[in-house]
Give the backbone structure.
Amino acid sequence: MTRKAPAFAAERDFPFAPRAGFCGDGGSMSRLADVFRNTRAQNRAAFVAYLCAGDPDFETSLAACRALIANGADVLELGVPFSDPLADGLTNQLAAQRALESGMTTARVFELVRLIREASEVPIVFYAYYNLVFANGIDAYVRAAKSAGVDGLLTLDLPPEEANEVAAACRAHGVETVFIVAPTTPEARVAKIAAATTGFIYYVSQEGVTGVRERVAEKIPEAVAMIRRHTTLPVAVGFGISTRAQVTQVAAVADGVVVGSALVNCIRENLGSTEKIVARLAAVAGDLTAGTRRRA
């Protein structure tokens, strides 16, 4: 990033009141479980679509999220903008910078979720950094997320050994946990990661940061098989997946395919025109969704 935007980690102005009619008490409803059950029955992988909340501004971000949902996204992964997104490559770093500079705050991220939720039951997973959760108060943050309509929380820089408070808050408020397995994760540790997870395992298929790659990693089938030896939870694969052909390749072995930078690029390449952003996202999402179907 060329300029460092201020983090909004210390803000505490987000609302806590549960939305009427929404299951915010830790009930048994699980949109994530339903999605993976349905896609499995349809012999396809779930399409997990990532965008940074508020990129490039609130209204455009809302339209972009709705476009992804309308064109096949099974799960919406929302990046919570942060000034130090260490797991992200340049594409997603700049998306976070645009969002912060446009005025995104913790409260506005939750408001975005509420507006998405008004018209869609697609599961929403936060892709966040721990400082944002911790500085706002762990229980308060998770409670507010659930009230807004968030289904899952992936905290990038929080290992399961340090996640007891987050896990307890998620259990209390009915938010699923998502943890990462990397190519460098020893198999002996995978069982511990799986035990801390309630939503799905996110397998990061490439070492390094997010970003478009020319080809997917070679050992994804072996890695997914190894993870499945330790859990019955769905396994979604991300990092470096950007084309329909790559989606098809990963969908053959994984329960979900995560695409991020390729979608964020649709915004970056059309800045200044919400109409063009929405049209491009619709076309790309539709194409990627078609790639999730497996051969009979």
Summary: The chain has one domain: 31-290. Residues 274-290 form the longest helix (17 residues). DSSP finds twelve helices and eight strands in the chain. The first strand starts at residue 46 and ends at 52.
